[in-house]
Amino acid sequence: MAPLSLTTDMILVLALIGLAVLLFITEWVRVDLVGILMMVLTPFLGLVEPAEAFAGLSSNAVVSIIAVMIIGAGLNRTGLVGLLVKPVINLSHGKPKRIMALVSATVAGISSIMQNIGAAALFLPAVQRISRNQMIPISRLLMPIGFAAILGGTTTLVGSSPLILLNDLIKPLGLEPFGLFSVTPVGVCLVLAGIAYFLALGPWVLPQGQMPPAEQLCHLHPQEGQHFEAVVPEELPQSLTAEVMLRRYGVHLLGLIKSGGHEKILAPDGRSVLYPGDVVALLARREGLETLVRDFGLEVKPGLEVFAEDLSPQLWGAVEAVVAHRSELEGKTLGQVHFVSKFHLNPLAVFRGDKPREVRLEAMELRAGDSLLMEGPWSRFRILAEKGWLIFCTPVREEPPASGKAAVAGAWLAVSLILILGFKVQLGLGLLTGALGMLVCRVIRVDEAYQAVDWRTIFLLAGLMPLGLATLKTNTAAWVAQQTLAALGDLSPLAVLAVVGVLSTVFTLVVSNVGAVVLLVPIAVELAIKAGADPRLAALAVGLATSNSFILPTHQVNALYMGPGRYHSTDFLKAGLPLSVLFLVVMLGVLYVLY
Fold first, then answer.
1. How many domains does the chain divide into?
2. Please, what is the angle between helix 116-134 and helix 60-77, to 10°?
3. CATH number for 282
4. Is the full-model pTM beyond 0.85?
């Protein structure tokens, strides 16, 4: 290979990589904004074409993640995910370490036959349900399980994209191809080492490892008042808004039907103005309601009529939840996150200690440990619970499984897997077929499908793809590899594997694992031949080590679990760095002993 010289484009790419890593670590901006920033800067600097910068949004990886999130939501909606959860709970007896180990082993096994991002996304609803039901902070579960999904991809030659590509890359080099289970001994050892690592060091390397259980944070406060339905009279002495009712009379506006209309507005905005003929659902203490009726002449019905079904215990409830540490709500107001308009829930009070606040809640800056008392539809509480912003002290009524749809959901999942594994259909197309089938068969509604997609993950991955492409197009990665290898001089066969493993680990953090394996396999083979080492082992080391992606949230699985787990980039660094070292040690040891 002809020596490469450092160019201006290479310097620009290295600067962008440094900027991205700096922003990941410092978290000055959200990680998805980092991705969008890279998507904008790379074409402006002339490193990629504009069409290439946006190609990540339609890439196979991004489409696969969107589709598998929808499939996972469909499986959860029909109760199939619950069938996976029950045996784990029964075997673990509710102990967090056993749950983590059993789910990690299961996810790793599934990752051996399908893409690890697919296995990770399918289990996300199950892990969230375990976290809620067993009162285990989800940050203790998601990272170990996500890392197990990545490690599981090293157990067969179809478990990850780099290993799938490996035989195609070594064939032109005249090397014998690997069999389906050639990597299994190494992969199994890596999975076991990863699970053992978190069993031994989890309390120290995982965030919130010493966090007290949720029940210790919960001090349930009684809900006061009852539901009423009323009609606004033809004449009002003055303007009446939801804010006025709450501030002066302690009456909460839960629902509204505008005069002459049929659409029910649940959790109306505090600025909502009431007009003659409007029908309203209220939560009030009787004395407060009587004063409101005396001042404004509202006609209170003897019982609930048009809102009777909406406010029934099966569909509506009251919940108390605590603001979690590192939550998106910590340090913000309900107004800043558009809480009411986003979730259509009614905040009734915020308790800080034993001091309640019931008015102007949208302007109160929340702290970790604050308790929110809320009312609203159970379906909206379930959506809020999936966000992981709050620790729920009151159980959220589980959604009844879609009647008769479990078999349909399972069938479409099977169709996806058959298309991918049997007919070699591209991963994204196969999974999107399954997701479309679930939508057409009404396993999951279209609006539920949109809600199931973590769009922060999508933009993070799509935005980083042009940076990886720029690294390859400008030969930046090749130049870095060339300089590293030139500085090391003559190497022993084991040292060759170690260097290849470290380079692959570093490159896969900033370049896609596919890009890293494509670039490094020819270099690793050439280096092994010069050092008298086995070139097939060097190529295999590249294929395996490109899964050693735990230090930054750049891997698809890490990006997927970052939001639900409320992780920061520094959390991945703290837990991932020791695991990356352990990965290299185990990989090199097994390769040296067996091969």
1. 4
2. 40
3. 3.30.70.1450
4. no
